[in-house]
């Protein structure tokens, strides 16, 4: 039963599959028929398309040829228009070029520059394609005219906006350190270039530079005299201000106001001068007694006044030269800012060097003049000789500013000026020492402090203020370098160099003082050397120079103290002559003989005479230092009173004369009292 059912099922499936195959065959026949129909249609379409292609392809070729012809015609028209413009440019731009550029605004100038560009383009066209064209001559003539008018307008605009700086403006520029502040002053403070004018000039200069005609010549011709005039006016301003402030000029102004009664007033003036001298003498005595400070030798008021005026003028001359150098740097930086954008950068440094040539020449002359005055001051041993080092320090400080202004070109004239100034400074050091050696001023009659130690201390103090400048300069000198190489253990090379020079100055000063002391008698010579040596030692201690001097001369303080003790002993030895009058070779007998009485008379008389002369002389000696004065008084008492007291007590009561008061004039108390009065009258 199961097999029958299975067979039936298989037969049914077979029958169904047979029916499906018949349907598939029928569908395949239909599909084949449709495909044949489609192929027939496509074949017909292909034939028709081939026929259409044969008809259209020639038309496409004709169209492409027509388009190419049209493009060629367009290019030809444009080229003709371009060429026609070259032929018409001279006629179109003639009026504009002949009228010249309008420099009121940058936009108006750009119109003129565009016209010149068109002419330049036409020039290039005709030079390349038709050099023999008559139109080229017209264009060349018009172009050259336009360039000349542009250069003239640039020069006019530059001249209109170029004014010399006023001295007060330059002084303000020197006082200010910030560049922005300087810019504001240089624009508004001196009626200089406005922003519109700057833009206009830069546009014109850029075009001229691109055309191969940079405006270096006009800039040099216009800006250089303005810079020079600014510096000359500033120099005259400094000089007038310096002269007006000098004591000598004030006195001259007062003298110029004298009327016809000058003869009558001259007597009054002499009386007033005499009274003034007396007042000054008393004031100096009071000052020295109260402070122990010496105010120098007794010079006339006129000499002191003239020396003060000379020193003031020297210092003001040097200060003016330094200020002038600062003005040159400010002018250089101002000109650099002004020239930026007006000339190509490769030409800028050469232009600035040429523009500042006259200014640097003026500065070199003033520096030479100031250094010459300092050297003259050094030859006369004036403390103002150190002012040249202040000038050198300021020039070195200003050098980077000038280098930035002239970059990348090196400031060769300024470098030469610096080297020349340093040479003068080095020479001034040696001339100061030579001036000490050749100083012919004699000492004061009272043996007070000479003017040389006073000047030497002031000079050394002034030099110490410029240690960082003097040290390297001396280090470059072979003699000082050799001397420094023999000293070890010193860290500060600059201080060592200056210490070596101080040692040289003080050694020559000590020698000169000893030579000047030869004009005095023995006692006053010792007082003179004692006063000056103590003054030097105290001055070195007060100023702190002694520590610097110890770098090259470690035992300098001990040496000065030994000298002071030696001079004290020398002074005390001057009493030996007086003591010899109260010294007996052998004791007198109890009963005086005639020759014994005569011997005592001679001893007392000689002592009295010598004592009177010595007292008159030494009352006029000057010992300004209070401590030294009192020390000498104590030493005098220790040297004189014991032997005189012993002599007086032993022989004053003896009957060697009927009139003993004639010979025994002074008691030990009177001698002590008179010794207390020594050095007071001239102190």
Overview of this protein structure:
This protein is mainly α. It has 25 helices and no strands. It has helices at residues 2-99, 106-129, 134-160, 167-175, 179-189, 195-210, 216-245, 247-256, 262-291, 301-339, 345-355, 357-379, 387-406, 412-438, 451-464, 467-475, 478-485, 493-516, 522-543, 545-549, 556-573, 576-580, 594-619, 626-651, 668-676. Helix 2 packs antiparallel against helix 3 (134-160), helix 7 (216-245) runs parallel beside helix 11 (345-355) and helix 24 runs antiparallel to helix 25 (668-676).
What's the SSE pattern?
A: HHHHHHHHHHHHHHHHHHHHHHHHH
> Spans with pLDDT under 50 lasting ≥5 residues?
178-192, 247-268, 281-307
The class by helix and strand makeup works out as: mainly alpha
Number of strands: 0
Mean pLDDT, nearest integer?
81
Q: Give the overall form.
A: elongated
End-to-end CA span: 171 Å
Q: How would you characterize the largest beta sheet?
A: none
Backbone CA Rg: 54 Å
The proportion of strand residues reads under 5%
Helix content: over 70%
Give the helix tally.
25
């Amino acid at each position: 039963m199961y097999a029958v059912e299975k067979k039936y099922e298989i037969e049914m499936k077979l029958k169904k599959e047979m029916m499906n195959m018949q349907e598939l065959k029928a569908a395949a026949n239909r599909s084949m028929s449709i495909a044949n129909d489609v192929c027939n249609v496509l074949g017909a379409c292909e034939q028709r398309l081939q026929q259409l292609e044969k008809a259209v392809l020639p038309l496409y070729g004709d169209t492409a040829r027509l388009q190419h012809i049209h493009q060629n015609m367009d290019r030809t028209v444009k080229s003709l228009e371009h060429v026609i413009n070259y032929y018409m440019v001279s006629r179109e731009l003639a009026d504009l070029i002949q009228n010249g550029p309008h420099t009121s605004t940058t936009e108006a100038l750009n119109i003129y520059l565009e016209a010149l560009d068109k002419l330049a383009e036409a020039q290039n066209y005709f030079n390349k394609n038709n050099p023999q064209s008559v139109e080229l001559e017209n264009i060349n003539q018009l172009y050259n005219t336009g360039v000349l008018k542009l250069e003239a307008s640039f020069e006019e605009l530059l001249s209109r906006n170029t004014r010399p700086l006023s001295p007060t403006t330059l002084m303000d520029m020197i006082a200010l350190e910030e560049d922005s502040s300087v810019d504001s002053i240089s624009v508004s403070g001196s009626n200089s270039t406005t922003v519109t004018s700057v833009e206009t000039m830069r546009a014109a200069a850029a075009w001229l530079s691109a055309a191969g005609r940079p405006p270096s010549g006009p800039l040099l011709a216009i800006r250089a005299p303005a810079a020079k005039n600014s510096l000359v006016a500033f120099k005259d301003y400094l000089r007038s201000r310096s002269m007006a402030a000098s004591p000598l000029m004030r006195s001259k102004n007062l003298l110029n106001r004298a009327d016809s009664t000058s003869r009558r007033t001259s007597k009054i003036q002499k009386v007033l001068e005499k009274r003034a001298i007396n007042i000054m003498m008393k004031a100096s005595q009071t000052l020295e007694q109260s402070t122990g400070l010496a105010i120098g030798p007794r010079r006339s008021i006129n000499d002191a006044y003239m020396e003060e005026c000379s020193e003031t003028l020297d210092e003001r001359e040097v200060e003016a030269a330094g200020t002038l150098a600062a003005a040159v740097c400010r002018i250089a930086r101002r000109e650099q800012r002004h020239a930026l954008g007006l000339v190509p950068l490769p030409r800028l440094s050469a232009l600035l060097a040429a523009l500042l040539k006259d200014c640097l020449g003026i500065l070199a002359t003033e520096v030479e003049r100031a250094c010459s005055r300092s050297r003259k001051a050094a030859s006369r041993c004036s403390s103002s000789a150190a002012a040249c080092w202040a000038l050198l320090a300021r020039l070195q400080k200003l050098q980077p500013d000038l280098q930035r202004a002239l970059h990348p070109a090196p400031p060769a004239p300024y470098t030469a000026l610096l080297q020349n100034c340093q040479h003068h400074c080095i020479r001034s050091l040696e001339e100061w020492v030579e001036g000490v050696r050749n100083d012919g001023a004699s000492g004061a009659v009272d043996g007070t402090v000479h003017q040389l130690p006073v000047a030497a201390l002031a000079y050394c103090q002034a030099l110490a203020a410029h240690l960082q400048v003097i040290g390297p300069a001396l280090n470059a000198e072979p003699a000082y370098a050799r001397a420094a190489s023999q000293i070890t253990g010193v860290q500060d090379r600059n201080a060592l160099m200056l210490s070596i020079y101080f040692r040289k100055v003080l050694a020559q000063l000590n020698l000169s003082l000893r030579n000047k002391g030869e004009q005095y008698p023995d006692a006053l010579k010792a007082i003179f050397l004692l006063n000056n040596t103590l003054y030097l030692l105290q001055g070195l201690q007060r100023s702190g120079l002694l520590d610097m001097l110890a770098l090259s001369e470690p035992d300098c303080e001990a040496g000065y103290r030994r000298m002071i003790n030696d001079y004290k002993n020398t002074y005390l030895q001057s009493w030996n002559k007086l003591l010899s009058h109260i010294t007996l070779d052998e004791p007198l007998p109890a009963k005086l003989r005639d020759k014994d009485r005569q011997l005592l008379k001679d001893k007392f008389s000689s002592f009295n005479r010598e004592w009177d002369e010595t007292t008159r002389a030494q009352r006029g000696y000057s010992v300004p230092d209070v401590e030294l004065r009192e020390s000498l008084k104590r030493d005098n008492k220790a040297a004189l009173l014991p032997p005189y007291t012993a002599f007086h007590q032993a022989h004053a009561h003896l009957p060697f004369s009927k009139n003993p008061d004639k010979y025994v004039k002074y008691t030990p108390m009177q001698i002590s009292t008179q010794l207390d009065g020594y050095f007071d009258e001239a102190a």
